[in-house]
Design goal:
The protein is of the alpha+beta class. It has helices spanning 7-18, 22-27, 29-51, 62-65, 123-148, 178-181, 201-228, and strands at 86-90, 101-107, 111-119, 155-157, 184-192. It has a single domain (7-240), classed as Protein of unknown function DUF1054 (BirA Bifunctional Protein, domain 2, 2-Layer Sandwich), CATH 3.30.930.
């Protein structure tokens, strides 16, 4: 099918960025439903169908994967009601409400982004991954390094929003250092905005998701192992153990 977007969709998103209010949006809701939301759902469906080969645990209906265009403004100083880009998050089955490792797609008038990894997990998962990083930092770094060198993929490390100090329970000279202080792990790639208008959009997104699927599986594996085998959740020994 080679789903992609029309110039009308990008025009809508640019207009929304300039007029981010309910009156403007509601007057053009029909355009949003037809030229923006419907193609995004079709795109998610097509990508998900391809993911069945390499990430079957992330396959869900498109309406569960596409993220709402409405912003949660309850605790934000920014009271603009709408996002000015489209987004989708392929969570692992069973981790839909707790983050875990997954695949992310963002489409806007300026850029397309493909990302994979764990982003700002809830407290228990955060501690689990930090413990895992303390014990497996060399393997993780090697995996990321391989992705950063993948020809034509354009991967970069994500902004980890790292703590300035090591979290409680970890040694100050832990060799995992920045990986333990991080709040997110994974990679992302920024692609030209024009890709959203091209038939090659699905191919380029799926190629990057396929490359990153082993990393996502590894991160989820660490979380699942800790959940299923609490006695293994400490990972480290000696100075790196929490309890």
């Amino acid at each position: 099918m080679a789903t992609h977007f029309s110039p009308e969709a990008m025009k809508f998103l640019r207009g929304l960025a300039r007029n981010n209010d309910r009156e403007w949006f509601e007057a053009r809701r029909a355009v949003y439903e037809r030229a923006v939301k419907a193609p995004m759902l079709a795109l998610v469906d097509e990508i998900t169908a391809a993911m069945a080969e390499f990430a079957p645990e992330h396959v869900r209906p498109a309406h569960k994967i596409m993220m709402r265009i409405y912003r949660d403004i309850r605790f934000s100083k920014n009271k603009q009601p709408y996002k000015t880009h489209l987004a989708a998050w392929w969570a692992r089955r069973g981790m839909e409400k707790t983050s875990g490792g997954g695949f992310y797609l963002q489409i806007g008038p300026q850029q397309v982004m493909v990302a994979a990894g764990v982003y700002m997990p809830e407290r228990e998962q955060l501690l689990t991954i930090r413990r895992w990083m303390s014990a497996h930092h060399e393997a993780y770094r090697a995996s990321v390094k391989k992705l950063l060198k993948a020809r034509g993929a354009g991967f970069e490390g994500i902004d980890a929003e790292a703590l300035t100090r090591m979290p409680k329970g970890f040694a100050s000279d832990d060799p995992a250092d920045e990986l333990v202080r991080a709040k997110s792990w994974g990679v992302h790639a920024w692609l030209p905005a024009g890709l959203a208008l091209e038939p090659g959009l699905v191919r380029e997104v799926v190629r990057r998701m396929r490359l990153t699927s082993p990393l996502v599986d590894t991160l989820n594996g660490a979380i699942l192992d800790a959940q299923n085998n609490p006695e293994n959740a400490h990972y480290g020994e000696g100075r790196n153990r929490i309890f």
